[in-house]
Design goal:
This protein is α/β, with parallel strands linked by helices. It folds into 2 domains: 45 residues, no CATH class; 247 residues, Aldolase class I (TIM Barrel, Alpha-Beta Barrel), CATH 3.20.20. The protein is built from 9 helices and 21 strands. Helix 8 packs across helix 9.
C-alpha cells in the first residue's frame, strides 16, 4: 500500500516553516499543516507533498473525440484518468464534485493506480493512449510526469486536458512528455475570466498554449465554452479567434461549445445554437480553417471539412466517427494539410504548413 504522501516537485522553502509552490501561477505560500488553493498539495513540517499521487477517482476508456480532440488520433480510444482538486474554482464546473473536493479529506478513499499499471489497463481496454482529464492535471504534476514517461515507453500517446493555468517551469517539466495539449480558453477578457473562474490574469493560459506548441511540439486544440452574457460578445470572440490565428496558427482547431445551466450559473440560459454558429463564422472570418460546434449532437459543425476542396473528410455524430477520408495529415481528395496528428512524431508548428 502506498503512503499517503509523495514529495512534490517545484517548491521553495520559506521562513518559519512556510513553503511556496511553483506549479501554477498562484504561487501559493503555504503555512505548516495547510494546503494550497488546489487542495492537493500540503505543507508537512516545512516540506511540500502531493496528497494525490497515484490516487484516482475516475478511470474510463473514452473516445478521443470526447476530450474534445478532433485532429489527434481520430477514432481512437484513450484511457482517461482523474483525481480530486483544481487550481480554479469555476462557477459552472461540470465536475465540481471532484474538482472542488478537499484531497486531505478524501484522498485515502480513492483508488490507488500505480503508473506501471497504466499500459496494462490501456491494452486491456483497447486504448491507444492515456489522458489526464476530468479535473486539472497540472496539480497532479508528479503523477502525470511519471505516467506519461511510462506511456511513451509502451508506445502510447499522452494527453493533458487542462485549463492551462501552469507556470512556464512546470510546463517545461511536463511538455516533453505530452503529445496533445487540449486547453480551455474560457474567454478573452479579464472580466469574463474573473466572472467564470475568479482569476484576474489569464495571460499565463495563453502563454502556456503557445509554449506547449512552439517549444514542446504538442498538438494544441482550443475549447471555449460560450456562456450567454459572460463571454459571448462578438468582439471578444473575434479577438480570441484572431489571437489563435496569430499565435498558434490558422490550422489550430477551435471548439466553441454549448453552455448548459449548472451550479452557480444555473440562472443563465443554455447557449443558443445560433450564437455558436455565429462564433464559427467569426472564427472562419479571422482565418481559422477548423472551427467546431460542441455539445450539440448531430450538428454539422461537428464534421471536418477540407478548407481547400470543401469535401467532407470526417463525419461525426456525438463521439462516433465515420468516413475518415484522410491520408496521414492530408486531405485524401486534394492533399491539403489538415493538421491531424496520427503518429507519435513531433510536428512543426500548426501555422507553418499549407
Amino acid at each position: 500500500m502506498a503512503t499517503d504522501l509523495h514529495e512534490a516537485m517545484l517548491w521553495d522553502r520559506l521562513d518559519d516553516g512556510w513553503v511556496r509552490c511553483r506549479v501554477c501561477p498562484r504561487l501559493c505560500r503555504i503555512a505548516p499543516g495547510a494546503s494550497g488553493v488546489c487542495r492537493g498539495r500540503v505543507n508537512r513540517d516545512g516540506r511540500l507533498y502531493s496528497l494525490i499521487y497515484g490516487r484516482v477517482c475516475s478511470v474510463a476508456a473514452d473516445p478521443i473525440e470526447k476530450k474534445p480532440l478532433y485532429h489527434f488520433f481520430p477514432g481512437t480510444t484513450v484511457l482517461s484518468l482523474g483525481t480530486v482538486g483544481c487550481n480554479f474554482t469555476c462557477r459552472h464546473c461540470q465536475n465540481w464534485q471532484i474538482a472542488h473536493a478537499d484531497a486531505a479529506t478524501v484522498a485515502r478513499d480513492l483508488r490507488e493506480l500505480p503508473v506501471r499499471n497504466l499500459p496494462v489497463l490501456a491494452e486491456h481496454n483497447g486504448c491507444a493512449g492515456v489522458a489526464w482529464t476530468y479535473n486539472e492535471p497540472t496539480i497532479w504534476l508528479e503523477y502525470v510526469l511519471d505516467g506519461a514517461q511510462v506511456a511513451h515507453e509502451h508506445g502510447l500517446y499522452t494527453v493533458m486536458v487542462t485549463n492551462g493555468y501552469i507556470t512556464e517551469e512546470a510546463l517545461d517539466v511536463l511538455g516533453p512528455h505530452i503529445d496533445a495539449y487540449r486547453v480551455d480558453i474560457k474567454g478573452f477578457t479579464a472580466e469574463a475570466y474573473y466572472e467564470l473562474c475568479r482569476i484576474k490574469d489569464f495571460s499565463p493560459v495563453l502563454a502556456a498554449a503557445v509554449r506547449a506548441q512552439s517549444e514542446h511540439g504538442c498538438h494544441v486544440e482550443i475549447v471555449t465554452n460560450v456562456v450567454p452574457t459572460v463571454n459571448d460578445d462578438p468582439a471578444a470572440l473575434r479577438a480570441l479567434a484572431g489571437w489563435i490565428v496569430a499565435e498558434l496558427g490558422p490550422k489550430t482547431p477551435w471548439h466553441v461549445t454549448r453552455f448548459m445551466p449548472y451550479l452557480e450559473l444555473s440562472h443563465l440560459p443554455a447557449t443558443p445554437v445560433k450564437t455558436l454558429e455565429r462564433a464559427v463564422a467569426i472564427g472562419h472570418e479571422a482565418g481559422l480553417e477548423f472551427v467546431y460546434v460542441g455539445n450539440v449532437p448531430g450538428h454539422e459543425g461537428e464534421n471536418t471539412v477540407c478548407p481547400n476542396c470543401k469535401r467532407l473528410l470526417v463525419r461525426r455524430t456525438g463521439y462516433e466517427v465515420e468516413d475518415l477520408a484522410l491520408r496521414g495529415t492530408f486531405c485524401a481528395f486534394c492533399g491539403h494539410n489538415i493538421n491531424v496528428r496520427a503518429d507519435l512524431g513531433r510536428r512543426e508548428r500548426a501555422g507553418g504548413a499549407s
